[in-house]
Amino acid sequence: MPNRFPNRLAALAAACLLAAPVLAQEAPRWRPAASAPAPRSEVAVAALDGRAYVIGDYNGATELLVFDLAGERWSRAAPLPHPVHHAMAAAQGGRIYLFGGYVNGWSASGEVLAYDPAADAWTRRAPMPTPRAAGGAAVIDGRIHVVGGSASGGTNSPAHEIYDPGSDRWSPASPLSTPRDHLAVQAIAGRIVAIGGRRDGEPDRNLDATEIYDPATDRWRAGAPLPTARSGTASAVLGNEVVVIGGESGSRTFAAVEAYDPRTDSWRALAKLPTPRHGFGAVTWEGRIVTLTGSPRPGGDRSGTVEVLAP
């Protein structure tokens, strides 16, 4: 009988060589970047033309902080007309739009402000039909969907309203199936994904809900639940996934980083956040996720922390 052992060794060696590029592929890692020039938390964050804008602050700061994503340098820009925290922001058509938030303590606002980087100035736009804070905003086809949040007193609002920057007008859309605040809201593949959050402002009532909105049918449907129920997260779209980062409960902040793929309705874990925190924001830049500021402790703390998830 011929000896097949050498053939088996050869086959095994060939398989190892074929697998080597996959095994050698490095997993994404976190690294620190330049800290913000002033600490912030409960901010709204949006990216436009290679810059990330950090807006508002739980402790009343109004100055706009601007992070150059390529050079990783900070600058300051025109302050808000008044303090606001837990607002929602999105970039569209060369401007940053800021929606609602809490003013004068914990009064939910319907105010809408637009920031023009060329003029370094804020202007008022048509107010939201439903004043609220701690919701989310995302852009589909040039229109901004503002989803969920809380009214004054912390009671959840299921409101889902669409803002057209071109006409400065609002229109209603199907309300959020699971009303909540401090949730992650992102647009991906022509749909809105709403993830996590909490009931009526209570961080000990965190949710794992994932819901997807289809603008073609004006309907929400349930998706696979968030593996780690939490609120006050940052989020960003990277490739074909929505990445949900950090967050808090009543007793802790989270390091969890979990990515949702709506194509497969599945979640996977990524490298943990080095500085667990909440009340912060994230943007995507050239295959990286940049997280900006936030509170490393539950409640009203703040920081200038910036950490980058890069392949």
From TrEMBL:
EC number(s) given by UniProt: 5.1.3.24
Top enzyme class: isomerase
Gene3D superfamilies for this protein: Kelch-type beta propeller (2.120.10.80)
SUPFAM superfamilies: Kelch motif (SSF117281)
Alphabetical list of InterPro entries matching this protein: Kelch-typ_b-propeller, Kelch_1
Cross-referenced Pfam families: Kelch_1 (PF01344), Kelch_KLHDC2_KLHL20_DRC7 (PF24681)
UniProt GO molecular function: isomerase activity
Highest taxon of source: Bacteria
Signal peptide extent: 1-24
Key words, A-Z: Isomerase, Kelch repeat, Repeat, Signal
Name of the protein in its database record: N-acetylneuraminate epimerase
Organism: Methylobacterium symbioticum
Name of the gene encoding the protein in the UniProt record: nanM
